[in-house]
Amino acid sequence: MLSGRQSSAGAALTLAAGALALVVAVPGEYAWGQATSRSCGAEETVGPACLLAHQELPRLPSGPLYWHLDQFASKADARAAAKPTSTIVDAFGTVWLFTIERKNWRAKRGRPAAVIGPLSVKSGPTLAADYLRSIFSPGMTAPVHVHSGPEAFFAFTGDTCLETPEGTQVGRGPGNSLKIRAGPPMLLMAIGKKQRRGFALILHEATKSPTTLTQQWRPPGSCARLLALDQAR
Fold first, then answer.
1. Around Cβ 23, how many Cβ atoms within 10 Å?
2. Displacement of CA 81 from its chain's centroid (Å)
3. In this structure, how many other beta carbons lie within 10 angstroms of the beta carbon of residue 183?
4. pLDDT in tens, 113-165
5. If both were cysteines, with which of 109, 113, 128, 196 could 136 make a disulfide (CB 3.0 to 4.6 Å apart)?
């Protein structure tokens, strides 16, 4: 795991590439890095993703689904605005209401942070939402993995790079968000020069495991190259 204290562009690229190689070469050592069943503790420290909340969603609105993130002054206010598809969590010094709803839905009295979607899911099976929290220093990654449902990312602080066989997505600055459909292998990396604190949602069939580690694909290094450029500036 990287500290983000690289001193040059070359060092940044070497360390980031080394991290990818280590994740692939020693998967057992990093299996906990994307273990979505590992519950978050009260202390928020730099490290891999942990599970903030798990919620089964037997009933969802018809039509395209979106992840709404709203901030509240108190849990009481969040509960007053919550729907059956909402989850309330404490993280990064505030109370959050996470809700799966239509795009035009709005939480009452909340401060909107993001609306991310649409999230492509199959109709019929009961779905579950796994909400994750992570704190990455620049250069830190999650092991290469796949999900059985779409995943969405929100960065409270920091920059995000998501690499898949289909290309590379980049989010810059506080509040950036990305999403990916179910299936493709992926690598998530914190880039830039600031600590990335963020959330992720995996929306999956309740009877299926949300996350599976894989060695069937090796990232070509697009995120590592972006990190190197960022560190050189």
1. 24
2. 24
3. 13
4. 999 999 999 877 899 999 999 999 999 998 899 999 999 999 999 999 999 99
5. 196
